[in-house]
Amino acid sequence: MPVVRDLRVLLRLRDFRRLLTVRLLSQAADGVYQVALATYVVFSPEKQTSPAAIASAMAVLLLPYSLIGPFAGVLLDRWRRRQVLLHGNLLRAVLACGTALLIVLDVPDWLFYASALSVTAVNRFVLAGLSAALPRVVVRQPLLVTANALSPTAGTLAATAGGGLAFALRLAGTDSDAVTVLLGAALYLAAGLSALLMGRDLLGPDPERVPPRLAGALAGTARGLAAGVRHVARRRPAAGVLTAMTLMRFCYGALTVMVLMLCRYAWAEAENDGLALLGMAVAVSGAGFFAAAVVTPGAVTRLGPFRWITFCATAAAVLAPALGLPFEPAPMLIAAFVLGVITQGAKITTDTVIQSSVDDAFRGRVFSLYDVLFNVAFVGAAGVAALMLPADGRSTPLVLTVALLYTAVAGVMFHVKHDPGHRPGPDRASRG
Q1: pLDDT band at residue 366, thresholds of 50, 70 and 90?
Q2: Which segments of 172-263 does DSSP mark as H helices, in order?
Q3: 2-419: CATH homologous superfamily?
Q4: Phi-psi group of 198: left, alpha or beta (phi > 0 → left; psi -120 to 50 → alpha; rest → beta)
Q5: What's the predicted TM-score (pTM) here?
Q6: In the structure, what pLDDT confidence band is assigned to residue 422 with cuts at 50, 70 and 90?
Q7: Helix, strand, coil proportions of the chain in percent (round to 5)?
């Protein structure tokens, strides 16, 4: 199989393996940390969780990235990306230890959220840095689709495995979520140390493009962000997939809040039943991510990137109501797998289109904008879900709204044509 052959070639690349190691450890830590937060906020017996409470928590944790994201992108195009991976993960290890302490001390919610925000804020730099660095270790363009299938998907699977480990600790009777958070801190530490296996300048940007003073980089943030937006606007493939992926992320976020409420109330006959079902949903969704990594490179080769996203959105539009409207665990778990395939397949394709149509000097900014759109879409979805969901999570209007949005994405993407004549190169007008 071509995919297997390409995977073998990729895994023989030493620097690709090292970058992948950083991603796996970092995102496994993310999975542990995020599940620890979710169980503390949603499944603590003393907390009466509502859709509005979940939406508020997501807003507190994610909306500030709308401000952080653009700064992250401009800085990523100036800072050595290896150093971002090193210091970012070490900083998160220290901050996660602080979160564990706050859980033990039972502090007010606002202080806990502030601590959690500090950990996940650094994540914007790390994830954007990993994506922007990938073309530096995979220089052969035909391998880039497979690299985007393997690397981010493997990271998502690592996050799923980390989340599964956190679920297992909780279901095994671990009394304190602080213990789980400390496990995440240890994994962040390992991720930071593993970045030392790569050279300082390996991941770019090129040293001559790095300004000597941080103040100068910060002063040019607004100009740099505007240049990044103009750069994407002139590249119709990148603009098209960013739009589609943002809408699909909105749909995924709305369904995520619905499943959380179903697990918390509608399906939980005993104290740990809902948590176990949520763990199963995370696991089967992770299996869907893995399946997407296997099928997407071949599908993109046969259909092209835009037709593949069109197919994914069409399948979601049909299957979301078919599997979701019964509001029963078994069909919903099947839906979790299917949407895992669809969402990750579209994301792999989006990453590849952006990397192949955006110049290296702009990739950090564009991936940070991509990240901001992800967060705003997810929080917006949580807010809409809070308005539409009843206490037990069963909402036919929400499922049908999601299906209509998937249909709209499919209709738009079907008419988007990739510009085969474009080749990434210097964007002199944007650099002005």
Answers
A1: confident
A2: 177-194, 214-219, 221-233, 236-261
A3: MFS general substrate transporter like domains (1.20.1250.20)
A4: beta
A5: 0.72
A6: very low
A7: 80, 0, 20
Quote the pLDDT of residue 418.
Answer: 45
Instruction: For 242-300, give the DSSP string.
Output: HHHHHHHHHHHHHHHHHHHHIIIIIS-SSTTHHHHHHHHHHHHHHHHHHHHHHHHHHHH
Distance CA 369, CA 88 (A): 19
- Whole-number mean pLDDT of the chain? 82
Token pair belonging to 38 = 């979710």
Closest CA to 352 of 31, 6, 30, 83: 6
User: Residue 278's closest CA among 261, 300, 290, 302?
Assistant: 261
Res 423: pLDDT: 44
d(CA 249, CA 343): 8
Chain position carrying tokens 């998502």: 156
Q: First CA to last CA across the chain, in angstroms?
A: 46
Token pair of 428, please?
Answer: 């002199």
Mean pLDDT of 341-361: 86
For residue 41, what are the CA distances in angstroms to 59, 113, 140, 223, 256? 14, 10, 45, 39, 15
**Helices 144-171 & 329-357 angle (0-180, nearest 10):** 140
More confident residue, 174 or 185: 185
Q: What's the mean pLDDT in 193-206?
A: 89
Distances (CA, A) of 142 to 139, 297, 298: 9, 10, 12
